[in-house]
Amino acid sequence: MIAVANPKPFRLTIVHPCVGRFVGMKRYIRTWRMEPIPAAIIAALTPADVEKRFYDDRLEAIPYDEPTDLVAISVETYTAKRAYQIATEYRRRGVPVVMGGFHATLCPQEVSQYCESIVLGEAETLFPLVIDDYRHGRPQQTYRSTERPALTVSPDRSIFQGKKYLPIHLVEFARGCRFKCDFCAIQSFFDATHNHRRVDDVVREIQRVRRRGRLFFFIDDNFTSSIEDAKEFMRALIPLKIRWVSQSAINVAYDEEALDLMKRSGCQGMLVGFESLEATNLKQMNKGFNLMRGGPTEAIANFRRHGIRIYGTFIFGYDNDTPQTFQTTVEFAKEQKLAIAAFNHITPFPGTPLYERMKAEGRLLYDAWWLDERYRYNMIPFQPKNMSPEDLAARCVEARRSFYSWPSILYRAWQGVNLRSPWMMFNFLVINAMHQRDIEGRNGLPLGDENWHGDLLKAERSLAAAVPAILEPA
């Protein structure tokens, strides 16, 4: 028998697309430059004998002519157009592309037009199969997850080396959320379910990546979706003596044991989706529980008693919002001296109840706003009830300008929790200044790269002929 020489290793290129880019844009938006954990998960799921490379479109030019056998791109709605541009460049060079992520699962017919294969659902059980199929020349058009996978894989952070991300560690404990908010793509993707990693696995990951003075951000969709699991995790964090932040629904503010564990485990702040101060709006978005037990005012007081700062998020554009709503909301955020706040218009993401309702009511202004050449970041893709789209967009920007003005920043800085330590005061000022600067940097940002020209290449559904088999070593 004649031995076959070892072939070249299979080569995988992982790309994280940016949202968009102006012509001549020199630096990307600072507050968006965080480690892309989904890319690191894909890298971790890749077999060890596969040669892998990673490029972050926000930070570096993508070398399209570099030889590779397969490109993997995770697609979100805001990055969809740019993902299709990147895929077009590779596919024009004869390189197949596989796409997954939230937008791929929620808009599979659209996404499948711009790639050879699509991954629907979570990748843990699917991506190793994708690699095996492509290296043997038998790729499938669709890979579909039928159940929630066990989250046993830690991200491969080696792909981040040499890239200039914000100095904060992103770690995932759990995915999904059990609430069914009208506007939320997360509940649509996970079907309002929740899943988490083993506590011991996450603790080991924290111990591996921790650096002196670095803050951890647990990127869970809702850190306390399973309150008992969250408590178990926080108990395990106490001996580590780290500082961390995350995001949670408001209900945790009324669980004294959970708040005590947050404080003891090093929680410095929590993003809480207050969304609206109007009961009718909260009911429409299926989030009436936000007014439980005294609502945001009582919740904020409870968090502060335990030294936890609040990043409050508010959304505008629901049917009972009026011009007065903006002033009332910004004044509330200032009076409560929130550490950070977001003032955004609602966005009808495909696959959500909000999108389907607005589509049925004929209120969507674009067939697919995320692909429309006229659409820019912070534009309103629907017709509000009580104001024009342009007025809604302008008032959201003005709310940010007011909250992140220097008089507001300094006024809020003197709240006891925000002032509690020199380290957190420094972070408070730096983060607020970054948000102030990014108000204008994000406003009007195109979706997709304005430097890119040409037509998006749509897929031809003949995979087997296009992808040669790559022999395994004898």
What distance separates the N and C termini? 11 Å
- In this structure, how is the largest beta sheet organized? 6 strands, parallel
Number of strands: 16
* CATH topology call of the largest domain: TIM Barrel
Number of domains: 2
Q: Unreliable segments (pLDDT under 50, ≥5 consecutive)?
A: 462-474
Instruction: Name the average pLDDT.
Output: 90
Annotated CATH architecture of the largest domain = Alpha-Beta Barrel
Summing up helix and strand content along with how strands pair, one would put the structural category as alpha/beta
Helical percent range? 25-40%
Biggest sheet strand order reads 3-1-4-5-6-7
CATH superfamily of the largest domain: Aldolase class I
Number of helices: 17
Instruction: Please state roughly what percent of the residues sit in beta strands, choosing from under 5%, 5-15%, 15-25%, 25-35%, 35-45% or over 45%.
Output: 15-25%
What is Rg?
A: 23 Å
What does this molecule look like?
There is one protein chain. The chain has about 475 residues and is of the alpha/beta class. It has 2 domains: about 10-150, Rossmann fold, CATH 3.40.50.280; about 165-420, Alpha-Beta Barrel (TIM Barrel). About 35% of the residues lie in helices and about 15% in strands. The strands form 4 sheets. It has a 6-stranded parallel beta sheet, sandwiched between helices. A 6-stranded parallel beta sheet has the order 8-11-12-13-14-15. Strand 12, helix 9 (about 255-265) and strand 13 (about 265-275) form a beta-alpha-beta unit. Helix 8 packs parallel to helix 9 (about 255-265). Mean pLDDT is about 90; it is low at about 460-474.
